[in-house]
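Input.
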Amino acid sequence: MRILLVLLFMLSVSFIHAQENTEEYKQIEFFKLNESNDLFTYWYQSDKYYTDGIHMEFVHKIFNNKLADKVLLGFDTKYKDFGLSFNHDMYTPKNTQLTTVDSTDRPYAGQLYFTYKKVSNQFFKGRKLSSSMSMGVQGPAAMAGKAQNFVHEAINNPTAKGWDNQISNGIILDYEVQYMGMIPLWSPVNELHYFGNAHFGTLNMSTEVGFRFKFGRYTDSYMNYYGIANDRNTYDFEASDIAKMNKHRRKIIPKHIREQSLEKQADYLNKRMTRKFQFYFFTEGSLSYIIHDGSVEGSFIQFSDNIYEYNYDDYDHTKILGRYGFVLQYSHFYLEYARYLQNDSFQHHGVFGYGKIILSWVF
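Output.
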């Protein structure tokens, strides 16, 4: 039944199509370094559960090809961006000094994989559809234990002693799709969105719903990957484009300009989308249901049995996640800091957290 719900969700999203009338949209191109670690936090700092992750992403037009466009779901629009990322994630129990298995806590798990991603936007309607496919390996072959202890030795932290007990080698072959739409409570300085996603494959199966809010100076969330200022986009809005926007979407334009001609409103949008300086705060809340967590139970395609076995009843499957932080962009440089909080699914001791720092350079 749970698997059927996920598939139904995916099928419903796949039939969402609409054509955007754009002429000169050019994909944004950037390199992004994404580092997650409990060291980036103060409150709820702990070397447990999701303890570290490094993601390197390259977004470029070379990844836009007919095969990727067919395999990855998206809107029928020219506002499409494609990227490829290299990812290394590490999971540990709360007590990393035990050399024996602690059946009351989560297991060690390391993951090494590539992700191919497509992001498509319907700018005038305020809708985004993203999809991605991940391929890689979980287990000792991911070399997560060596990577974590190398860093710990370099900064003179205690080494994690239980990596010999980690989840065994298994295949990662996962697919994820996310839909995001605007909630009509906008202004020129704030956005409010709802989103839902579904993830399924050999490693993870889950569904999630939530909201996002941001406040400050920015371009727009439905122009490209992350609403990053993009000098390559030479498309100019015209009065006919403004006429396509409903009254709620048009609130991105200040009220005193909305009272003027459509040409004046188009001029405002063109200047807004080329802002070199952005600075805004954001927050996000979501509720997800985990059908299968491969970092706990292992992949559906395992090369060998795990040293110990967890099953569906050994951890909570409802996850509450909170996120907040800020974004700073000036010209081609982009910086983001995010703080994550999540409920403890194993020992039920409140919440745990970690921080994430993202550095990007836009070409």
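Residues 133 and 175 are 5 Å apart (CA to CA).
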